[in-house]
Write a structure and sequence with these properties.
Elements (H helix, E strand, L loop, with lengths): L8 H13 L12 E10 L9 E6 L4 E6 L5 E8 L1 E8 L5 E9 L4 E3 L2 E3 L7 E4 L13 E5 L1 H6 L17 E8 L4 E7 L10 E5 L2 E2 L1 E2 L4 E2 L8 E9 L11 E7 L7 E10 L16 E14 L3 E21 L3 H4 L26 H4 L34 H10 L11 E22 L4 E16 L11 E20 L2 E19 L21 E4 L4 E2 L7 E17 L2 E18 L6 E4 L20 H7 L4 E3 L4 E21 L2 E12 L11 E2 L15 E2 L17 E10 L7 E11 L4 H5 L54 E6 L7 E14 L2 E20 L45 E27 L2 E14 L28 E2 L6 E9 L9 H7 L2 E10 L3 E2 L18 E2 L14 H6 L7 E2 L24 E2 L3 E15 L2 E10 L37 E9 L1
Parallel strand pairs: 1-7, 1-8, 6-9, 13-18, 26-30, 38-41
Antiparallel strand pairs: 1-4, 2-3, 2-5, 5-6, 10-17, 11-12, 13-14, 15-16, 17-18, 19-20, 19-52, 20-21, 21-22, 22-23, 23-24, 24-25, 25-28, 26-27, 28-29, 29-32, 30-31, 32-33, 33-36, 34-35, 36-37, 37-39, 39-40, 40-41, 41-42, 42-43, 42-44, 44-45, 45-50, 46-49, 47-48, 50-51, 51-52
Length: 1171
């Protein structure tokens, strides 16, 4: 069942060579929130100077670190707080050197060499040499965004995560609110986000992520952020947990000088431009405000910094919905009677196809034929109210009367026009203290809390006053760290950390359909159901009640000592993670009313009754499908251990070798009720003898407590080097490779707890309900004993199932995913302000998880007549439904217990990434600074992996054929062949010699921009039909013989591109006339590869303009204007790619969104008081 694609011998040769080397990858200063400064001290002839004293003083706090050179003339200072420094270098018989203006950033390895002149120590020589722009210490790739960039670059929305896009290798970065809390998802160098989340997030050295989905947590506002560092390739052995990258954010601290800000930023509808193809602007009104304050409590000893920020937003929602008028509510559908269609007579007449003219009518809910629910004959004149078999459902009538308004007066198309405002509010608090306990101990404590409450209409809802989903979250992060200067050459840093993210999504009002007279039995907290009526209204709801999140307790210690040519790091970390997911699922009930053909009893089909018209079915309470779930309470508790050693070995003054080793263990999860399941076909559980055959539980032979065995073989060797051939810090060659293990997210561990027998997830499973008032008693086909199956409670001795049972299992012997990284490159500093870096980057992920349906229907090649939709459950390999259990596969006997889907989370998927990454950095000089990169890359995966959805939900993509996974080899969903980003800041102060008026008008302005250009991401072309009859409509088509897949070229004409982005005539449905045979069993699988074409490219320029106005001494006011997509480029979205939807096939109907969530220009105006 596991895919073996992408297993290339070259990759394993690299891996084996790395392991045999026994080394670890290059070091990024082995620090999260501090910096390193190192170098060589010589005399004017180049001879080394041993035992020289190097004194580093942080100018803002007078923090002092003293170190000495060794017998090789080398010095190294680790765990330095970031900021500005003055360095003093002295030795007996030499003049003292003083260097001011040294700026150290998080995770930086600053190489600064000094040459002493002979003379008296009382003689001071001041130098102004700047820190080199090239990295002479290791081969770590990434980027540090310092405070100047955070302060100067445009950040519309005030989310610092937006600046992650400035780092080469980051292919996608977005904030999502999936289960109640905002989580940051980042794709780095072709990595996967499929329940693994291959990026680790830190805040002030403590973990800042939620293990449920391995996503980054909320960050403080930009005024509270000092800087952040992103590491994307071959990072230090200190870093574990994930294998693709590290994002470390550092907040500001107090200093000896009082400093801070007061700010407000505003976005308004009238500031913005219209979205593409829209004549009106999208309503928008957002206020962001707050303040920061930092300073000394005791000079040079105790410092404090604090911050508050808030957001207030009201999102207006507009409604334009067809609703039934007074006649239709009474059962009179004469205004919907087809006028251009000849209605047939007799049984089956209700299946009469409407003419094109009747289909084109949308007023009053369109044209349709209403049939008698018993005789299945068309009702004369569409007057259901006059039909003797018409019995209005009192619950439907009550819902109409209370929650479905009449058409807006004056409208002639039965539409309701209205609006509703929904609030969004967040508040955040940060407090941070630094204490210089002694000359050897520096203590830092920080606490950050963010609270949010946002109200949204459930997806698809098109009327006010029904259900509102309220997303409420609270995030808390606390860190305590101590830096202990053990000696001039040894330093230790220890962290204690706690991170909590807790979120919920509840629905208001807290009533159920029972309040309308229904017998719907809601297990758990009540909420209104989801009711959709085709061509009319949708009273939507979403899964209410999920309380999701985790508590993470961490302890981390890193010790560094310099011995001769070696800078050695050893350390360990341990985290206890307690994940939880409590959800009501769809306990409220979902009811779908669709326009459908009435069953023809004469042909022996099912005898349940409907009218064939959705709105008429609603009036009599006969849904096409009804679904209902039971609540779920899932937990996963596990430990993460890490032990590491790192040696930065300066072999010669020109060459540094970075060596080390890391060992990781993530324990298998535990749950107090042991609610995990594995799949072993044909084996009966001894723990739960009445369970479905093949479903085993902890305690069964070979099934441990967590469902899987803990792996203890996660040894990660890494190696890297930096070679400075001329010893001038201007030309550096670097490279390395390493192994990086990932952890598995809590949501993956807990997924089996969401399914039977622990919980019921059977949305849209029941199709024989004939009353909203008496749901269960009138449907003895779906509900055993004509009674409600709720409350549905897990009973280990006698587990209950609602068949067909869809189940999820952990894979026995599951292995943890890992990532192999490699890079090689050269850096060249051309001037003191300009440097270029060229790198090859490779990243290869293995053992990635994918949901595999081990019980997918098998295509019957011996008896093709069996390959129908009604026979899905008869063609499953395990516990298949025989005809003897009922009248047919479509109508099994009541009480039958059998499996439908059996999803096993398997570890067999892979990704490959190869990229050329070129970066340019120009420090601020001559009024301008520039940082930019260009990436040419290719990322492949063995299946669609970049999704955070669960199987069975819209967020997940299932393979076309589970028995032919080789068809799924594809470009990753975030693959961009070309990507370029340029960030620039321009300070046009050219008028220093002009008169005062000109100086005041033109000097002091700053203009910044972020320019983004990238090629299109791939998209998947599907047939939209279940051609291979496996129960999933995700099949792909074939290419028409003689044709080829291609994107059309219209010379850049947007109007033509959007109407037919690709050659739509090149595709045909498998089995259709003129189409070639497919592949797989029965030749019914489409041969078009997934993600075979690319969508439109993207270009965007975000810009900011601001100026400071002096108020009093250090107090100033800053006016600031910022905009996304300042030139309002129209970036086209992904075209329609479903063959069975010809009106949308190849058509682009939407604009691509910016990272801030909007496609059009959005302007943000603000003001800041700075001091």
């Amino acid at each position: 069942m596991k895919s073996r694609v992408l297993q290339k011998s070259s990759l394993f040769a690299l891996l084996i060579a790395t392991i045999l080397a026994g080394f670890t990858g290059p070091n990024a200063s082995a620090q999260l929130s501090t910096a390193t400064m190192f170098g060589i001290v010589t005399d004017s002839t180049g001879a080394i100077v041993p035992d020289a004293t190097v004194t580093l003083t942080q100018t803002q706090t007078n923090f002092v670190r003293v170190t000495k050179t060794n017998d090789q003339g080398q010095y190294r200072a680790e765990f330095l707080p970031v900021g500005q420094y003055t360095a003093k270098v002295s030795a007996s018989g030499f003049k003292e050197i003083v260097q001011n203006g040294i700026v150290l950033t998080a995770t930086q390895q600053a190489a600064v060499n000094y040459a002493l002149d002979i003379g008296g120590e009382s003689t001071i020589v001041e130098v102004t040499t700047e820190i080199p722009l090239v990295n002479v210490g290791n081969s770590v790739l990434g980027r540090t965004v310092d405070n100047r960039e955070v302060d100067n670059l445009p950040i519309v929305g005030r989310n610092v995560y937006q600046l992650l896009s400035l780092t080469p290798g980051i292919q996608n970065s977005q904030t999502e609110n999936t289960i109640g809390f905002p989580g940051q998802h980042v794709i780095i160098n072709g990595s996967s986000d499929n329940m693994v989340g291959q990026v680790t997030y830190y805040l002030d050295g403590g973990l800042n992520m939620t293990g449920v989905r391995n996503t980054g947590n909320v960050l403080p506002n930009p005024d509270a952020i000092d800087q952040f560092a992103v590491q994307t390739s071959n990072f230090s052995a200190e870093y574990g947990r994930t294998g693709a990258g590290v994002v470390s954010v550092l907040t500001k601290s107090g200093t000896n000088q009082v400093h801070g800000s007061v700010f407000e930023f505003h976005q308004e509808t009238n500031f913005n431009s219209n979205a593409w193809l829209q004549t009106t602007r999208t309503p928008l009104h957002i206020n962001r405000f707050g303040a920061t304050l930092g300073g000394p409590i005791i000079k040079d000893k105790t410092f404090l910094f604090g911050s508050y920020a808030g957001l207030r937003q009201v999102s207006p929602i507009e409604f334009n919905t067809v609703v039934p008028d007074a006649l239709q509510r009474a059962g009179n559908f004469s205004e919907n009677l087809p006028t251009s269609t000849t209605i047939a007579k007799g049984l089956g007449a209700c299946a009469t196809a409407l003419s094109a003219a009747d289909k084109s009518v949308t007023a009053y809910g369109g044209r349709f034929i209403v049939c008698d629910p018993v005789t299945h004959q068309p009702v004369p004149g569409n007057r259901l109210d006059l039909d003797p078999n018409y019995h209005p459902d009192p619950v439907a009538a009550a819902v109409l009367a209370k929650n479905v308004p009449l058409p807006t007066p004056g409208r002639t198309d039965n539409r309701f026009i209205g609006n509703e405002g929904l609030p969004n509010q967040t508040d955040e608090f940060l407090i941070k203290g630094d204490q210089q306990l002694t000359a050897a101990h520096r203590l830092t404590l920080d606490y950050f809390q963010s609270n949010g409450a946002q109200s949204n209409l459930p997806s698809g809802s098109n009327l006010p006053g029904w259900a509102v989903n309220n997303y409420v979250y609270r995030q808390q992060t606390a860190n305590v760290s101590n830096v202990w200067t053990v000696s001039a050459r040894s330093v230790n840093q220890v962290w204690l950390s706690y991170t909590r993210m807790n979120a919920g999504r509840d629905s208001t009002p807290g009533t159920s359909l029972a309040a309308y007279g229904s017998d719907l039995n809601v297990q758990g907290t009540a909420s209104l159901p989801d009711i959709s009526v085709a061509n009319f209204f949708h009273l939507a709801n979403a899964i209410s009640g999920p309380v999701a999140g985790d508590n993470v307790y961490g302890l981390r210690d890193v010790f560094n000592t310099t011995r001769g040519k070696h800078s050695i790091f050893v350390g360990a970390e341990i985290y206890l993670e307690k994940d939880r997911l409590e959800t009501l699922l769809n306990n409220y009930g979902t009811f779908s009313f669709a326009n459908s053909t009435v069953p023809n009893t004469a042909s022996g089909q099912a005898t349940y009754v409907k009218t064939g018209a959705a709105i008429a079915d609603f009036l009599i309470g006969h849904p096409n499908t009804m679904g209902q779930d039971s609540p779920d309470d899932a937990n996963a508790n596990y430990w993460n251990y890490g032990f590491f050693g790192q040696d930065d070995w300066r072999i010669t003054p020109k060459l540094i070798l970075n060596l080390g080793l890391r060992y990781d263990v993530q324990t298998a999860p535990t749950d107090t009720q042991r609610r995990y399941a594995v799949f072993k076909p044909g084996v009966q559980s001894t723990v739960s003898p009445n369970a479905i055959l093949g479903q085993l539980f902890p305690g069964d032979p070979g099934v441990p407590q967590g469902g899987v065995d803990t792996n203890y073989n996660h040894v990660s060797p890494r190696v890297g080097f930096a070679f400075d051939p001329y010893r001038d810090g201007k030309t550096v060659f670097h490279g390395g490779a390493g192994l990086f293990f990932d952890t598995i997210g809590g949501n993956e561990w807990m997924l089996s707890q969401n399914f039977q027998p622990f919980a019921v997830r059977e949305t849209a499973a029941f199709s024989h309900v004939t009353s909203l008032q008496n749901i269960y008693s009138t449907d003895c086909q779906d509900f055993q004993g004509c009674t409600s199956p709720f409350p549905y409670l897990y009973d280990k001795v006698n587990p209950r199932y609602v068949s067909p049972a869809s189940l999820v299992f952990l894979q026995q012997g599951m292995r943890w995913p890992y990532n192999v990284q490699a890079n090689f490159g050269v850096q060249q500093q051309f001037t003191k302000d300009l440097a270029v870096s060229i790198n090859y980057v490779g990243a290869f992920s293995r053992k990635l998880p994918l949901y595999i349906d081990a019980n997918a229907p098998i295509y019957n090649t011996a008896n093709p007549a069996m390959n129908t939709a009604t026979n899905y459950n008869c063609r499953r390999p395990f516990d298949a439904l025989p005809f003897g259990k009922g009248t047919s596969c479509a109508n099994p006997a009541v009480g039958s217990k059998y499996i439908s889907n059996a999803y096993v989370i398997e570890d067999g998927q892979n990704t490959n990434y190869h990229g050329l990454q070129v970066t340019v950095e120009k420090r601020l000089s001559q009024h301008i600074s520039v940082n930019g990169f260009y990436v040419f890359s290719k990322a492949l995966s063995s299946a669609s992996l970049q999704t955070t959805g669960n199987i069975g939900n819209s967020g997940a993509t299932e393979p076309e054929d589970y028995y032919n996974l080789g068809l799924e080899r594809q470009r990753t969903d975030s693959d961009q062949r070309h990507q370029a980003v340029i960030a620039a800041v321009w300070k046009p102060d050219y008028f220093g010699k002009s008169n005062r008026v000109v100086q005041n008008l033109l000097n002091g302005w700053s203009i910044s921009a972020i320019v983004t250009m990238r090629s299109g991401v791939p998209f998947n072309i599907t047939s939209g039909t279940d051609d291979n009859m496996d129960g999933n409509n995700n099949d792909r088509p074939n290419v028409v013989p003689g044709k080829m897949e291609r994107v059309n070229s219209f010379g850049g004409s947007r109007s033509l591109e959007r109407t037919q982005w690709f050659d739509t005539s090149a595709y045909c449905r498998v089995g259709s006339a003129g189409c070639s045979a497919g592949t797989g069993a029965g030749n019914v699988d489409g041969t078009v590869s997934p993600n075979s074409l690319s969508g439109p490219g993207y270009k965007d320029i975000d810009a900011a303009i601001f100026r400071d106005f002096a108020i009093y001494e250090r107090v100033k006011f800053q006016f600031r204007g910022e905009a996304t997509n300042v030139f309002n480029f129209v970036n086209l979205g992904t075209p329609g790619a479903v063959l069975s939807s010809p009106s949308n096939f190849g058509v682009i109907s939407a604009q691509a969104t910016t990272p801030q969530g909007s496609g059009m220009r959005v302007i943000q105006l603000g003001g800041r008081i700075l001091f």
